[in-house]
Amino acid sequence: MTELARRITATGWWWLAIGAVSVLLAVLAVTALGPLAASWRLPLALSGIGMLVAGFALVGARRVDHPDGSIAMVVVAILAVGVASAGSPTMAIMQVIAYPIAWTFTASMRSAINANIGVGAAVAAGFVISIGTSPADLAQTAFTVTLSLGFSLAMGFWIARMSELGDRNGVLLAELQGAQEQIAALNRDAGAAAERERLARELHDTIAQDLTGLVMLAQRARREGGTRDETLALIEEAARGALGETRALVAAGAALTGAAPGPDGGPAPELDLPGALARLADRFEREAGVRVVTDASAAPPLDRDREVVVLRCAQEAVANARKHARASTVTIVLDEHDGCARLVVEDDGAGFDPAAASASAGFGLPGMAERLALVGGSLVVDARPGRGTRLTAEVPLDRVDA
Asked: What's the rounded mean pLDDT across residues 272-287?
């Protein structure tokens, strides 16, 4: 609702209330103050009604959108109810609109209370004029004023309390919405960071390994002196593998291909995990000239995510053997052990210091451990300089039917 529409609506409700009360009071005045009444009573009662209507038209209607502090409207209401009550005690019904004006058109709780007392005093003064000052009349006046004023104060305090609670809840709601927006922003940032980490691991475990293989094949070709067809074929295959892995990443998929290329550089048809390990071993043998023995005959069934994790660990392990171990034989075994799929990659190479390797920069062993941790797995590295390396990765089994 626009500000103009809200103001028109609020003004309309006030006009409806004042109009209804004024018509009712006018009818009562004419009915109660007939020919038998003093000649001044009916004009006085009607004057009070007219004051209320005219005051709202001239002052109150312009302050409906910002009623706080409109003391002029409060004064008009007090005078109107006093004048009307002086004409006839029946006109005290005007309190049903005078008290709301006292609450609505004041700027503070103290001002509202004073305005309420003013309305009560005006009614009391009107009663003294209209019904007299005998003990019985004064008792009636005191009872009427006390009852009306007490009810107005009680209702006003209750409504003010509800309004205060509403404002406080509004502030809390705004703070909650702000906190939710901050949490959403943090979640987006965390999601983006997690995606960057995932891409970094995928790039390291796939494309980076392919590029490393290309470099080593190029170095081998240079050492051979003449470029052999076999070496060129391996370079082409490695390049196609990198291209296929890149396309898989762009498509947000991690294919179980063992980094082997398909036709025209596309990704190869997906394999099961033992097949992907066999293809990885075959490619490693041809590129590095290292004997690779694989045994996945006891491989347990895994879901897609766990298969990708195991394959990436195997790729990283053989890549490390190629780059650092100077091994002559690499063994890859995939089986089941204590409710986990266990991958063991062992070489007879130079070995290394695991503590120094973990402290070094890069995505090698630390990245492998992080990848395993994401699926509840673990990594154990048994290596010593000069005694080869044994890497054991375990992934909890996914017990769905395969």
From this structure: 85
Query: For residue 266, what are the contacts with CB-CB under 8 A and spacing of at least 6?
Result: 243, 244, 247
Domains and CATH numbers, the chain: 3-132 (no CATH), 271-402 (3.30.565.10)
Q: Is 399 helix (H, G, I), strand (E, B) or coil?
A: coil
| Residue of 159, 274, 133, 256 lying closest to 206 (CA atoms) | 256
d(CA 288, CA 305): 29
Q: What's the pLDDT at 336?
A: 92
DSSP designation for 261 = B
Residue with tokens 């066999």: 278
Question: 322-339 burial by CB neighbour count: b if 16+ within 10 A, else e?
Answer: bebbebeebbbbbeeeee
The answer to whether the CB of 367 falls within 8 A of the CB of 204 is yes
Q: In which order are the strands placed within the sheet that holds 389-396?
A: 291-295, 329-337, 340-347, 389-396, 378-383
List, for residues 67-114, the tens digit of each pLDDT value: 554 788 888 889 988 888 888 888 888 888 888 888 888 888 888 899
Residues 206-221: tens digit of each pLDDT: 666 666 666 666 666 6
d(CA 315, CA 324): 14
Task: Give the pLDDT confidence of 332-358 residue by residue, as tens digits.
Answer: 999 998 889 999 999 888 887 766 665
DSSP 106-118: -SSHHHHHHHHHH
Helices 3-32/41-58 angle, 10° precision? 180
Contacts of 29 (CB under 8 A, 6+ apart): 42, 45, 46, 49, 84, 87, 88, 90, 91
φ, ψ (nearest 5 deg) of residue 290: -110, 135
Alpha-carbon distance of 384 to 11, in angstroms, equals: 88
Query: Any bridge partners for residue 378, and if so which?
Result: 394
